[in-house]
Amino acid sequence: MAVRVALVGCGRISRVHLNSLLALRDPSLVISTAVDPNVAAAQQTRQLLPAPQECKVYGSVEEAGDDSYDAAVIMVPHHLHVEIAREVLSKGKHVLLEKPLATSIEGCRELLALVQSTDRVFMVAENSPHWPEVAHAVNLIKEEVIGDPYYAQANYWEAVGHSDFNNGDVAEWRFDPSQVGGGVVMDGAIHWMRPLRLFLGDISKVVSTMAYPWESVKGESLADALIQFKNGRTGLLHCHTNIIPMEKIPFFQIFGTKGEITIHGSFDGGLSVHTAGRTVSVNPGGYFGAFKPQMASFVSAIKKGKRISPSDSGSVLEAFKDVLVANAIYRSAKSGAWEAVDNNDTV
Question: Residues in domain GFO/IDH/MocA-like oxidoreductase (predicted)?
Fold first, then answer.
């Protein structure tokens, strides 16, 4: 079964998804279409394809028409997610939509309703469940290697002047709260919320603070949230976008009654398990190792004609829960009080 894929949005993240498609080495996959209002960006994406693949370039989904692709990987600015996903679904295409699901609860509800009314595969590209370090930590917790986990600390940070996140690669829209849906919380830290839920369970409420130390970052560039989980466990989410180089700190620390799991603060990977008198360190594959299995899951669902189930890591329902957590963090920063994460919104 041949699957023609459209890359909708040809910015920085499109290179990562393109590489994951090519890494599958599946001759039945054809990258047939590149779409971006900046046609030059779409043309640059086409040039990354190995010969003899052909790929047509368009300035919009409407211009691409109905017959140039079967599935779309949508990688547009956040505020366009609902609009573009709605348009692509209306053409009967399969969708892999970059996170977050939407910038508003209303947008999430609309996409949830659309997905429930279609037989197309609709998957949200929340790659963190496929992140090798996260998956390994989840397995270690299930195996009770650190006993009963009672607390997790998550540090989402980006040093946009750092060598592994060059300032020139940051699109201007990412500094605009109206397009991002906020600042660092909605932009990148939402990737860290899913692992916290995988480690400790669903979140019941949060209390948070925010700050705006950098004039160039219009949304919040610093936020902290104390988290209460439904099962009584607690956690802390620290989010920080810094425009200068900064010391790398662990991405995650999960504390249990018999030890600790640390996911190192490097996109290149690394994880350590600390138990009584012993430390074991491994490198399961690194952050970018998440994208190939994520893409494989999407392609497999299309070929099998299998819709993404509500409990699947790429489901709209799970992505909706992440947005609800982010929304509660924003509400708490304004109210100065604990705010509930109402998962009834997803019903």
Answer: 136-261
